[in-house]
Design brief:
Largest sheet: 8 strands, mixed
Number of strands: 8
Bound molecules: guanosine-5'-diphosphate
GO molecular function: 7S RNA binding; GTP binding; GTPase activity
Shape: elongated
Radius of gyration: 22 Å
EC number: 3.6.5.4
Protein name: Signal recognition particle protein
Structural class: alpha/beta
Subcellular location: Cytoplasm
Helix content: 40-55%
Catalytic activity: GTP + H2O = GDP + phosphate + H(+)
Number of helices: 11
Length: 293
Amino acid sequence: FESLGQKLQDILDNMRKSGRLTEAQVKAAMREIRVALLEADVNFTVAKDFVARVSEKAVGQDVLGSLNAGQQVVKIVHDELIETLGGKAQQPVLKNDGNVWFMVGLQGAGKTTSTGKLAALYKSKGRRVLLVAADTQRPAAREQLKVLGAQVGVPVLEVNDHEPPQVTRQRLEEYLQKDFRDLVIVDTAGRLQIDEALMDALADLKGALNPSETLLVVDAMTGQEALNVAETFESRIGLSGLIITKMDGDARGGAALSAKSVTGKPIYFAGTSEKISGLEPFYPDRVAGRILG
Ligand code: GDP
């Protein structure tokens, strides 16, 4: 197995005559980069757009004294990947007078687990956290959150079967009057596939609760499908940020690039294990390196 960096270097070393990257050199390199992106499960359209942007930047650049042409193209690609993934690690901004975070995603993505992880993380930072188990159709999903809440040591407000959003809102307000909480994290219903009824119900609940953050939980292992999922949740529900789970698996991180590209929203966290402590800030530079292989 030859790494992408090595492949690019070979291509460019063979052709390098002048101190500038020529169009032919860049074109050959970009073919390799597109293949590498697709192998890392980046969505086809996202990969194409990415390569177009990088080509534009690379053609005609002077080759820097310390690098050869191959290294320079790899550097341009790496920098652009970091930029596309969000630049620096970012965290949601917390207001002092109350925050409601609305967690959305497909069933199995790791939404409930991530909700528990966030509760543990922010409790440790001194926040008064309340979890809301808001899957109005699956008592088992609510039960799972109650178990996590007990484990973390934060209260869980459970919605009732088929409870209307306005009732949930009212019950939440009543709860907060009795027991002040400055971070409310709402775990919502997920389905195995995107369906219209789910989207309508989520949009209604979001409207009633007026969250300060709406976070989509995306499974890194879903590869190509991540783009559709992110696009649909963004257009139907509206997102403010993303969480990529299962980064401890062998997924290369293409799902992160696709979801970020299509929504333009920051990736705040990466899930790195099944454990309650398995949540880290999302570091674009690390994932860029992993995508390049
Ligand atoms: P939900 O249906 O979206 O709420 O998904 P769950 O939170 O129930 O998670 C589904 C499965 O994925 C469970 O077995 C979790 O333990 C597992 N899981 C969630 N996040 C991660 C992660 O970051 N890494 C690993 N390895 N497993 C995870």
